[in-house]
Amino acid sequence: MYGFEALTFNIHGGYLEAVVRGHRSSLLTASDYNNLCQCETLDDIKMHLSATEYGPYLQNEPSPLHTTTIVEKCTLKLVDEYKHMLCQATEPLSTFLEYITYGHMIDNVVLIVTGTLHERDVQELLEKCHPLGMFDSIASLAVAQNMRELYRLVLVDTPLAPYFSECITSEDLDDMNIEIMRNTLYKAYLEDFYKFCKKLGGATAEIMTDLLAFEADKRAVNITINSIGTELTRDDRKKLYSNFGLLYPYGHEELAVCEDVDQVRGALEKYPAYQSIFAKLSYGESQMLDKAFYEEEVKRLCLAFEQQFHYGVFFAYMRLREQEIRNLMWISECVAQNQKSRVHDSVVFIF
Amino acid sequence: MGGTLVYQGRLTWLHLGRPSTTLFLNFSGLSGITNSGTESSVTAGGPLCLLTNRHEMSGFSLDPLWAAGPGLEWTGMGWIDLASARHSMGLSRVTSALFDLKSHSAATTLHVSQQDGDSSLLTDAMVEQPHFVLYKWSSSDSGKCFSGEIEIDKQEMQQSSSSELRHRGSSLHSELQEEYSARSTPSPKVEDQVQKERFKSLSVFGTLVSPKLRAAQLSFETALETLIKIANMRSAMLSAFAQVQKHIEATTK
């Protein structure tokens, strides 16, 4: 019953909610980012991060540092925090936490399959996989020749199995089919996560459905913009949009026929929630669209912490940490390439 | 007799022995080129005029290169655009682990040929100069190259240098840019094929890639074209210098 979570939530979820709120307070602030943006070298960045919770993860890294090393170690911290929360969680929170990682699992599957198609070594591909998306039989993905084999040999025993019902064909895996597989899997995952959150009910359902609807809409816009000028047909494009969200179904009808960024703008400006995003961009511009969407997403994720006794804080924390890691990656790249004038192009302040 | 290279403002004068045989080399705005013959780096790029005995004037212009000067930054832009694409798409989507190791033909090739020196400068055409030609976006299916040669030949340079001498001024660089882009605009059919080849080469990262990755590809493509132009300009300059040296040696004998 919505509104009465305060009576029972803390029995099973109180400790972990306190843990995640503690982690949230350690997210980098605007003054941390200002200091980082003024660094001249990656070693300076390491020195500034040593005063944060990333310190223990970076302190033993030898110079010269690379941007990939910084990202890898920061991600390791996130993984450790997640694993601690997962092993302490009971149902249904444990299932909720597992749902958060299925997106990374899909990315890892696609990485292994694409790399195998390009005759890359499996060990090399496994090193590039996201640690949150690893599962036991992931290395066996390399033997599959088509999607049917992919499902039968490997994925049938993974949490992604239910999402494959729309993907199973005997067609050989090529670049286009893999891309369609990626987006179809992600669509099925989002819809499943949405249904699960709705079933949980209460504040979790209210907050998570809003966050997932935004995620679905953001993906629809990205798929539209990325497919402009490609061989993807309008019907195939529409099939990749999720069946929920603010843009479903009428916004999707308009997005499916868009041929340039201005038409996408025209389709989305009808929705007040997305007017503010496009108000920041000039006509024809798409470079800053990512940043505008990330800023909106961060605003919504931060609002999740304003309410207690729901699981949305765990999802919000994971996403905010991922945004922080993206920020650190961008700052490191700008410093390493001596392009500090571009550093504010993509950094999204969280607090 | 040897010569001394003197820099004065935007003019570089190469005095060679007798005052009657003074060669004026005017450089302005070109950076990064080293003329090993003079052991100096050229720090400016503008009209390059060779006057022999003050009666004969022929030259080739570095102004296309001056117009392409900002293009030298394209390499840096390409790398930052690539980082932007990785930021947008995710580290697992844009990674070297996805490069295709199956054997396939190169999308872009560089051919080096030896050309004879410019006979309009001097009678001695025995000096060879290497000439670089970039064949972009060769289709792996048909073996055809869609965007053709990218080069600046001597005739174009001479034509543009003579027009520059008549039309000096601040609008010069923009005029040359417009002229060059008009000359190099391909037909719509070729442009479509080139776009297809571009998408094909990016397909290692997936078929639905971010516009930032496409921007990175364009930046690197422009950087490559600029490097070829620089190489051809340098080759022409070195060849011209060699010819002038030979002529001076012949006349002093």
From TrEMBL, chain A:
UniProt GO MF annotations: proton-transporting ATPase activity, rotational mechanism
GO biological process assignments: vacuolar acidification; vacuolar transport
A GO-annotated cellular component: proton-transporting V-type ATPase, V0 domain
Keywords tagged on the record: Hydrogen ion transport, Ion transport, Transport
Pfam families, A to Z: vATP-synt_AC39
Keyword Ligase: no
Function text: Subunit of the V0 complex of vacuolar(H+)-ATPase (V-ATPase), a multisubunit enzyme composed of a peripheral complex (V1) that hydrolyzes ATP and a membrane integral complex (V0) that translocates protons. V-ATPase is responsible for acidifying and maintaining the pH of intracellular compartments and in some cell types, is targeted to the plasma membrane, where it is responsible for acidifying the extracellular environment.
Family designation: Belongs to the V-ATPase V0D/AC39 subunit family.
Subunit record text: V-ATPase is a heteromultimeric enzyme made up of two complexes: the ATP-hydrolytic V1 complex and the proton translocation V0 complex.
Protein name per its UniProtKB record: V-type proton ATPase subunit
Native species: Nelumbo nucifera (Sacred lotus)
Lineage: Eukaryota, Viridiplantae, Streptophyta, Embryophyta, Tracheophyta
Record gene name: LOC104609757
UniProtKB/TrEMBL annotation, chain B:
Recorded GO MF terms: unfolded protein binding
Biological process annotations from GO: vacuolar proton-transporting V-type ATPase complex assembly
Span list, region Disordered: 156-192
Species per Swiss-Prot/TrEMBL record: Nelumbo nucifera (Sacred lotus)
Name assigned to this protein: Vacuolar ATPase assembly protein VMA22
Highest taxon above the source species: Eukaryota
